[in-house]
Amino acid sequence: MAKILVLYHSQEYGHTKLMADAVAAGAKAAGADVTAVNTNDARLDVETYRQMDAAVFGSPDYYSYIAGGLKMFLDDWYIAKNIDGTGLADKHYGLFYSHGGGGKVGAVMQKLFGMLGKQVGQAVESNGKPTEQVLEACKALGRDVARAAARF
Ligand SMILES: Cc1cc2nc3c(=O)[nH]c(=O)nc-3n(C[C@H](O)[C@H](O)[C@H](O)COP(=O)(O)O)c2cc1C
Question: Would you say the C-alpha torsion 151, 26, 36, 78 has a positive or negative sign?
Fold first, then answer.
């Protein structure tokens, strides 16, 4: 069974959490074992990431950038991969984000998370509260990441 991490930040209205829940539901429906963490609740131990087969990352747009908790994860990831000698394998990953009408965080996520491995599909975007169509796209993303992980 593929192990999938859904790591996201949601704090203001819960928009990104709705998307994360749909991603997790899609991955579970494809047979994955899902670990979901909101960085507003906890800092992810990079050892948890190491044990995952693939991951899906979601952020609200904060000042045209990712939320601080996700930046902290990327800092931890970089140090584990490059500095502390333990290394970290590349992984398949997916992306989603929510915003209030700007949405420049999308390009930032493409660039930053590109370090982690190979992206699955397109990033799913929501302007404000996610619509049913957006949530369906999130479910499909979770499914596709789970399938990509199961092939490796
Ligand atoms: C501190 C802060 C900064 C924000 N900056 C932006 C921004 O630069 N561009 C934008 O489109 N939305 C911005 N927003 C709006 C959020 O991205 C948007 O409301 C998002 O859906 C909130 O997700 P959440 O409910 O999961 O926390 C900002 C919100 C907050 C709280």
Answer: positive
**What counts of helices (H) and strands (E) characterise the chain?**
5, 6
Mean pLDDT value across residues 41-64: 97
Architecture of domain 3-150: 3-Layer(aba) Sandwich (3.40)
DSSP for 29-50, written as a single string: HTT-EEEEEETTT-PPPHHHHH
List, for residues 106-131, the tens digit of each pLDDT value.
999 999 999 999 999 999 999 999 99
Candidate from 62, 96, 108, 126 with most ligand 1 atoms within 8 A of CB, to mutate:
62
Residue 73 contacts residue 44 (beta carbons within 8 Å):
yes
Q: Say how many Å lie between the CA of residue 71 and the centre of ligand 1.
A: 15
* CA 60 to ligand 1: nearest atom: 17
Domain locations in the chain?
Answer: 3-150
